[in-house]
């Protein structure tokens, strides 16, 4: 073999080795980031002490069984599909229409509306049901309509408990001196219409006939007009804020995202690719939701399922102002952008500088002010119904 041939062979081997080394380096550099192993907390690993249910647990379980409420349909974030703008309108955002009822962690947000108080006339069209004598909860339960919905509106009946003097959904063993029937004036699916109100009257009258009550129905046209007026206000003051964190270089694995988000209190939900940050009030909807590709979340090899972007969503009218949701979201995004080497953008991929974030913060505060001025403070029972 000549010197030239030997040189070419050596040069070829060097080139092949260089290509192999480059491919390995590139794969390592751009492979999805994996979660770091963290020390196990011995106290966290300790088995939980078993506790036998006491009388209070049994009574609470019985009450929950007797008084199921349909879950609030507060919109979480888009999961795999792109969000429809920085401030997605909850009313028109089809992706956001997926109900929070998919997440049992926040199913308790559907606790009986206004328990202890009459229905709020800002949110409901109300029919008082007068009684000549008290009616048992068993009789009221037997007379209740089989559905809690009329069209796309929630239909509720509460009774005034003779002993506690508080309003509540009918329950076995109690006695009631009066009842109220109510239907939502508006929600994110639109305003109360004539057909829905007519069905409301029929169902309420049937219930009243069964228990011997005298209903006092309001004028239909007046209530429908109120519904349209409330709906118009809600349409102008509804906002579901969507912000993205996009990977600059290396993608992220599902485990890496969960590990980073867990440091801020995010917990997995039953929906693949969705994490939630719980509110201080345990029965309130989540303060923030984090979503990434659900297909990656269900992949066989979670360490090698690449994720390029994650979506953070703040449903402004459904989160109490005291939670400081947007300042917390901004801080989380800025810190994660540095930790995860990501870029903060809107859902269309446009980078958001500090000036843009300041403008969003001002818009959120103006929205809070408008809701409070109209009697629908963000996160209140009234707001949760109107923006459901």
From TrEMBL:
InterPro entries linked to this entry: ZipA_FtsZ-bd_C, ZipA_FtsZ-bd_C_sf
Transmembrane segments: 6-26
Domain of life: Bacteria
Keyword Membrane: yes
Keywords assigned by UniProt, alphabetized: Membrane, Transmembrane, Transmembrane helix
A Gene Ontology BP annotation from the UniProt entry: cell septum assembly
Entry protein name: ZipA C-terminal FtsZ-binding domain-containing protein
Sequence segments annotated as region (Disordered): 32-51, 61-84
Signal peptide annotation: none
SMART domains to which the protein is assigned, alphabetical: ZipA_C
Residues of the ZipA C-terminal FtsZ-binding domain: 237-364
Low complexity bias (residue ranges): 75-84
């Amino acid at each position: 073999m000549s010197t030239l041939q030997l040189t070419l062979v050596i040069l070829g081997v060097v080139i092949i080795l260089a290509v192999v080394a480059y491919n390995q380096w590139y794969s390592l550099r751009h492979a999805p980031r994996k979660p770091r192993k963290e020390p196990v907390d011995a106290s966290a690993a300790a088995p939980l002490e078993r506790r036998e249910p006491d009388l209070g647990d049994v009574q609470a379980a019985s009450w929950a069984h007797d008084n199921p409420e349909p879950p609030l349909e507060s919109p979480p974030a888009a999961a795999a599909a792109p969000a429809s703008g920085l401030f997605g309108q909850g009313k028109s955002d089809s992706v956001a229409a997926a109900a929070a009822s998919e997440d049992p962690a926040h199913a308790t947000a559907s606790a009986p509306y206004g328990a202890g108080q009459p229905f709020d006339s800002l949110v409901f069209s109300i029919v008082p049901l007068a009684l000549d004598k008290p009616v048992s909860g068993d009789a009221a339960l037997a007379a209740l309509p089989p559905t809690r919905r009329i069209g796309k509106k929630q239909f509720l009946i509460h009774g005034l408990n003779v002993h506690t003097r508080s309003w509540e959904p009918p329950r076995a063993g109690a006695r009631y001196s009066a009842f109220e029937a109510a239907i939502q004036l508006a929600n994110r699916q639109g305003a109360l219409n004539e057909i829905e109100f007519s069905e409301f009257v029929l169902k309420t009258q049937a219930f009243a006939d069964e228990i011997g009550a005298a209903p006092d129905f309001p004028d239909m046209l007046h209530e429908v007009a109120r519904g349209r007026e409330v709906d118009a206000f809600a349409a102008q003051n509804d906002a579901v804020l969507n912000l993205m964190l996009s990977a600059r270089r290396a993608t992220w694995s599902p485990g890496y995202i969960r590990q980073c988000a867990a440091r801020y209190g995010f917990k997995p939900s039953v929906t693949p690719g969705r994490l939630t940050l719980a509110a201080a009030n345990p029965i309130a909807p989540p303060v923030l939701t984090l979503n990434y590709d659900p297909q990656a979340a269900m992949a066989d090899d979670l360490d090698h399922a690449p994720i390029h972007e994650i979506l953070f969503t703040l449903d402004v009218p459904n989160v109490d102002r005291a939670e400081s949701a947007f300042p917390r979201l901004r801080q989380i995004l800025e810190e994660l952008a540095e930790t995860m080497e990501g870029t903060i953008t809107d859902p269309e991929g446009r980078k958001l500088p500090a000036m843009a974030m300041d403008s969003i913060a001002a818009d959120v505060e103006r929205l809070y002010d408008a809701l409070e001025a109209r009697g629908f403070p963000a996160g209140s029972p009234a707001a949760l119904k109107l923006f459901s």
